[in-house]
Amino acid sequence: MDKEKRYVAKRKIKAFLYGIPYLLCRIFPINKNKIVLWTFEGTGGYGCSPRYIAEELLKQKKEGKNSFELYWIVKDISKEFPKEIHKIKDTTWNRAFHMTTARFWIGNTRTFYGTRKRKSTTYIQTWHGSLSLKPIGKYRGNLFSKMAYLVSKADSDLIDHAISGSSYCTDMWRDGLIYDGVINQLGSPRCDVFVNNVAEKRMELRHEYNIPEEAKIIIYAPTFRGGSQGTKRAINENPITIDFDRVLEAFEKRFGGEWYMFLRLHPQLSVYCEGMSVKNKNSRLIDVTQRPDMNEIMAATDAIITDYSTCIFEGFLNGQMGFIYADDLEDYVKDRGSLMLELDEIPFSTASDNDALVSNILAFDEKEYAEKLKCFIEKNGIINDGHATERTVKLIEENYG
């Protein structure tokens, strides 16, 4: 038996044992008003689409429209949540009990391998990605390991409804999520903030971080590296090579005014970020990695720089200027697989080093960019009307009972 087969066999045994508490907890009845939520396998906080769904559910509950009780599974119990939400420390038995007795599950990442679901529990998967350069699932080709396939398929077999924010994602989820169930093209709840709360979030974050109200903000958000490789769960902590000072100077030269930069690492890297080389003496560089919700950050900012992350394909819904800075493209493709989209078919300029990035900023053409965005949104059927959350809550109500 080769190394990968031994690893897969070991994981299958572990999954079987992991599922036993879920079976034992079936002695307890399902609470028809109970909803369990999570983000980023429990490492995330109050963010992404589950947050906006929770907010709408709580709002409607205050109006007497529902009686739902919300339970949020989180590894770090000190993370802040609204007082109306029950925080659940992420342990195997806590997960098993609360998920087994819940009427609904709402998550933005997969459940753990071995998770068991009752037939009368409805699992709504909102997924944390959308359009992206980063390949997922079968789009990774030969780099999609057998173990990754098994984990993906096991979770997707539990899903009752997958939420899509575009016609592109509706088509892509089949092979991307290894999913052949119901896909509801409702829009992404997390993107409603770009329609409904931009002015509020711009002021809120500027006051919180002591940034002048008239100042502009760039967000630098590199994507997550690693994942379920053939025989291990890998986290790659790549060094950050972007020249923050030069980038800030370029934005000020091209667009005028005072600019600040937010640094936002992927939530699954947040627990590692203290050991990474991200320190900079520039007082206008602010680390917002520990902030739980990426979309409220994007709603407050004016430009985004990333490598392969889905966030740039959502930030532009807020009119954000977008720039690709990918200094490791060859290595990334070798590790993850071919990009989901060709670089010449996206509306963003691309750079592989700081010189090219600065040049792209200085040469930015607002009119050309706006035209490219319009065509890209229409081509990919992106929904952005500010009502995705309401439609998702209506889906919950339709499945309630």
Automatic annotation (TrEMBL):
Q: Which Pfam families match?
A: Glyphos_transf
How this chain sits in the membrane, per its record, is: Peripheral membrane protein
Q: Name one GO biological process term.
A: teichoic acid biosynthetic process
Q: Which GO terms describe its cellular component?
A: plasma membrane
Instruction: Give yes or no: UniProt keyword Membrane.
Output: yes
Keywords from UniProt, A to Z, are: Cell membrane, Membrane, Teichoic acid biosynthesis, Transferase
Chief subcellular location: membrane
Give its localization.
Cell membrane
Superkingdom, taxonomy of origin: Bacteria
- UniProt keyword Cell membrane present: yes
Supply one GO molecular-function term.
Answer: CDP-glycerol glycerophosphotransferase activity
Please name the InterPro entries in this protein's record.
Answer: Glycerophosphate_synth, TagF_C, TagF_N, Teichoic_Acid_Biosynth
Q: Member of which family?
A: Belongs to the CDP-glycerol glycerophosphotransferase family.
List the protein's name.
CDP-glycerol glycerophosphotransferase
User: In which organism is this protein found?
Assistant: Butyrivibrio hungatei DSM 14810
